[in-house]
Amino acid sequence: MTKLILSTGNIVSGGPSIIRKPGANRSNFEFTNSLRSSFQAAQQDYAVVEPALGGDALANGNGNGNGLHAAFAEDSRRAPVSLWTAQENDVLFVPRIDWSAAGLQEEPARYEITAKLFFLPTAPISNRVRYSTEALDLVLKELDVPGVDLLIVSFPGMSFDGDCEWEADKLNATQGSDEEEAATWLAIEELHRQGLAKRIGIAEFGSEKLARFLKMVQIPPSVDQINIKNCCNVPPPLVKLAKEQNIELLVHSDCTDILSRGTLRDLLGPRPQGAGVLGDPETGAGGLQGDLTPQWVVKYTAVVRDRGVIENKGYFASADLAEL
Amino acid sequence: MGLLAQGTALDWPDAKKQAHLVRAWGIKQLLEIWNKAKVKERDAMLWGDEVEYLVVTYSKDDPKVLLSLRQADILAALADDKSLSAKGGCVPELQGDPASRTNEPLPVFHPEFGRFMLEATPGKPWGIEFKELLGVEPNMKLRRCIAKDHMLPNEHPITLTTFPRIGSPGVFTDPYYPVSGSKLRSQFVPDEIANPHIRFPTLAANIRSRRERKVQVNVPVFKDENTPWPWKDPTVNYDLHQWPEDDDVRTGGAAPDNFIHMDAMAFGMGSCCLQITFQAKNIIEGRQMYDQLSPLGPILLALTAATPIYKGFLADTDVRWNQISKAVDDRTAEEMGEKPLRNDRWRIPKSRYASNSTYISTDPRLRPEYLDPNLVIDEDIKQQLLDGGMDDRLATHFAHLFIRDPIVIFNEDLQELDLNKTDHFENIQSTNWQHMRFKPPPADNSIGWRVEFRPMEIQITDFENAAFAVFMVLITRVILSFDLSFYIPIAKVDENMETAHRRDAVLERKFHFRKNVFPVRPPRGNSGTSTPNSISRPPTPPRGPVEDEFRPMSVNEIINGTAYALGPDVEVDHEDDFPGLIPLVESYLDSVNVDVVTRCELATYLDLIRKRASGELWTAAKWIRHFVANHPAYARDSVVSEEITKDLVGAVVAIGEKEQKGEGFRGLDKQAAPDLGKLLGGFRGTSRCC
Q1: Which one of B159, B210, B374, B670 has the largest count of C-beta atoms within 10 Å of its C-beta?
Q2: Which biological process annotations from GO are given for this protein (chain B) (predicted)?
């Protein structure tokens, strides 16, 4: 089993992938676009000028060099996968990460750092404890900080949908799995206890679901992040409950199903549309072969507190490759 | 407007003799503060807004609406009322958490040039916490309410940019004064129209004296069905023989056909603006903000257009800017290029009130081609600044500002140079009224480097004023976060500024705007071991012709993005797909933690701006034009009579009263303020929800 760690790097100064699609009030557009840009940028940066170097590169192909040569010839301006990715033990970093560039410009206390962890429906629930640690570790390493100010977890199968937020609240009450969410929360509470996350929160909990959740957990969430459309009508029961429990209601525009198998295959699949990390399952040509399963996605932002400037924002995602 | 110095103001011939000294001392003071403050770091984002009001007398039963000249009394009443306690229902409608604002310092009121004007600022600067942004609108309402409370019952603070009939024949001030005083020598307005503090009449008189004639503020008249053509301003008096300047209209060509003719500083400096000042974290960020906000100036001017009437006539332009520019234009005939240079040092293409002439950032994206190759600078002053250690670009900026003479000089200030002050520097700096101002810290270095955004027109309601103020704050955060570049050649910004004056420019005109505002991604550096041996691309991509970097765009496209402006069915080339300022702001807001209530309020502000840009809602200028056009007393001859003016001001007063009471604007449509829905849409209706 190989694990893939996908990363976007800092996307705030990375160009148009931060732009929201007109009309879309919720999407994974930013995430997928910035991953795509990240792959392309790495392919360009690690491309070698001398075609002869390509041979050397292939020699370090980490055992998955099958077909790389063809991909390389197809677009000589792009680096072969082995050059712009990095294999460390059983982890393949896509693209490779230059940790020497990690960190923020000023000391950590000057930032408000938020991480949002998306658990995905494709991944086993039993692994969520491990996922939380893995994801947060990467964020802390990337920003070179001892902890985050706010860690929000997003569970699969939850939404805040409907023409009117009242409806959304009703529908929400029936979604997800209270037991599984509460069980996962234990791991998040632990991160809080260890001082790795000053505040912890959840996403997309309506009033009923939130009320049930509060009864099941030791440390109540400080934040409930919800997706609201244009109207300012947050369901009053949710407003009331949040106020009573001192839970801050924050806005987001992410979709919960942020990385599906299909999207992941498209991103990593054969060129020219994909990054060429995965081979063509039909012909067996080019890149890795196997069944790819998204595990989690984490989004992080570092905002300079008293200036409101976003200095760093990016994503990591993890996927398991069951090799055939 | 800062504290008013006391002393003996020099008349022009004497002031002129001291101009060189003031400049020399001003540069020394600038170098002093620059040396002290150039290393300032990590200042917080603080910002402030300035709202200016006209004070009018209006009551339903009085057929006349007049400018009240009681500024001094009103300011005295405000100053005497130590607590400024909010009396008579002056409690602003609070948004968010009321407890958070109970200890807020009270607003501050300032005099302005016009004796019929007031300026009000918040009691302390705003921060960037998003909840704080929601405090702006209640605070603006509080300011207006406190101002009203210290006026007579028939006096009202209103936020029209100009009084429609200032300078019209007959009575337009309370109390009345005859025209043609010694300071302004205007045939339309009395000297008493200006703040009587010695600074203001001296400013006006010395500008007139320096240019050796009165200022000429000519605005093209709007040609309606029954407007005689060619149109000769019927209010110009050709038989006045009080002052030598009275010849201007007879022999000087001061009043050309088809133009509304005005002849005094009060016609320009009597306009109300909405100005926003931002504190930068350091000088580098300040210079970046100065440059990046500069190309936005004309766009926001067009979007806030509110000035379609002058001196009782409909104008063919929509904004105040050029009128102020002409009203304080102190250039001599030689400097303007009308006579060969003999006594003056150079020809100067722009008034001291004009759009920016320099970019000052250290950003490598600032290409030399963007700058004005013919920029006039004082080479000696630039050399002094360079010798003092300042870099070329910033030295050039100040050496450009310092081509101007100081206009008002107090004899008492010329005894000795005090490097613990910045008065001489400020004398030149603050009479360079460009559309951006780059402000060094004060002499005690107690606050940071600041940038003032000056082009916006004041809006009729506090809701709109808050919306534009907050929008600009968010835009600065977007620029800094996403490292955006709006650079186009300075000359194109000038052109845009002219374009912004055209009638309904917001919908009918296009503006030069940069196509790709995003930074070029830096290639991975050579710091780590994992970096490639060689990189296939040069570190900076080759740059094409500057002309390829921008194209004409509508305000709608600039504000809302190409996709929104053209609709979903139009395919756009990737290169021509401009994201839009509002989508950029939304992307920013998506990336920071904002609570639902705050986000909704911010969304309301963005909606107003979106709709103004798309034409779904009207600018104040358009609304006023419609008001006049549909008034039963309007004869389609471009004349805005006293009766129409009274009803227009009455509508504005009624809108203000509704807003103060928090009653929403609904209902006014049918009575006092027809078509108000076209101006304000459903915003701030009876319920707080959008």
Answers
A1: B159
A2: glutathione biosynthetic process
Instruction: Give Cα separations from B465 to A217, B133, B139, B160 (angstroms).
Output: 46, 12, 11, 12
- Which of A13, A112, A230 has the CB atom closest to B519's CB atom? A13
The radius of gyration of chain A's CA atoms, rounded to the nearest angstrom, is: 21
Residue pair B665/B680 in contact (Cβ under 8 Å)? The answer is yes
The residues, any chain, with a CB within 8 Å of residue B77's CB and separated by 6 or more, are B150, B151
Query: pLDDT tens-digit profile of B382-402?
Result: 999 999 999 999 999 999 999
What are the strands, taking DSSP E only, across B10-114?
47-57, 66-68, 108-110
Strand order across the A248-251 sheet: A86-88, A91-94, A2-7, A309-322, A291-304, A111-119, A148-154, A197-203, A223-226, A248-251
Average pLDDT (A212-237) is 87
Residues β-bridged to residue B439? B450
Say how far apart CA B483 and CA B492 lie, in whole Å. 22
pLDDT value of position B313: 98
Q: Rounded CA gap, B520 and A221, in Å?
A: 40
Q: How close is the nearest chain B Cα to the Cα of A291, in Å? A: 29
* B592 vs A16, A248, A303: nearest CB: A303
Q: Is the ipTM of this complex over 0.90?
A: yes
What does the pLDDT read at residue B541? 60
Weakly modelled stretches of chain B, pLDDT under 50: 1-2, 86-89, 91-101, 526-539, 686-690
Question: What residue in B sits closest to A20 (Cα-Cα)?
Answer: B587
Residue B12: in which H helix or E strand, if any?
helix B12-37
For B491-529, b/e burial (b = at least 16 CB within 10 A) is ebbbbbbebbbbbbbbbebebbbbebbbbbbebbeeeee
- Residue A149 three-state SS: strand
For residue B681, the distance in angstroms to the closest alpha carbon of chain A comes to 16
Is residue A246 classed exposed, middle or buried when 0-12, 13-18 and 19+ CB atoms within 10 A define those classes?
A: exposed
SS3 label, residue B9: strand
- Which token pair is B282? 């350091």
- Cα A132 to Cα A184: distance, rounded to the nearest angstrom: 9
Radius of gyration of chain B (CA): 25
